[in-house]
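name: query_chain
kind: protein
chains: 1
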Amino acid sequence: MPPTDLPALPALELDVLDERLVPAEGFLRIARRRLVVRAGGRVASDTFVYDAVHRHALDAVVVLAHHVATGAPWVWLRSAVRPPVRFRDPARSPVARVDERPGIWELPAGLVEPGEETVEGLRRAACRELAEETGFTVEPGALVELGPSSLPAPAVIGERHFYFSVAVDPATRREPSLDGSALERFGVVVPVPLALALDLCRRGEVEDAKTELALRRFAEVVG
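structure:
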């Protein structure tokens, strides 16, 4: 018979020999640690240095707002300016992007601020980000968990993404309040049929991994 689960992860431990935060002026810092891997209480590796991204607000919420039109589910996307995408070296890309402009299409998302690191806090954060980025105001109780959290870049940062969906009424949408940053100022908010959004993922026109994951989870829910 085929297996019904994965085997247990190896019983390994990471010992921290020393660590420090590398000074930085901007949003992110580097946590530099000297580590060894232990297996069964014995040293299983040479000492090595591992750099990871350190951020004041570590985790993020992702919110899929949806409504029904013409008998089918629609979802709300917004454009986002992402400087790291703009400044990728094209010579290092074996396949060109579909659109080389600095923006990408995403679901509304944002950081979980200190003081919001609870189950209730995640819902408050999701409501705030939805209002700031799309203009929809919802109550925390209206949010539906959309599967478990995910680790978007575990080799670089310990960030977790927490997913929610929520039904909205397009007639109630107002201008997004935004968060005051230049990156959000010129964003465009659009409703898209779910089937089209998934097709855009397949065609490489929606490149954001958390957005595709949430769209596919929602598609499983609505069938």
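note: The chain has a mean pLDDT of 92.
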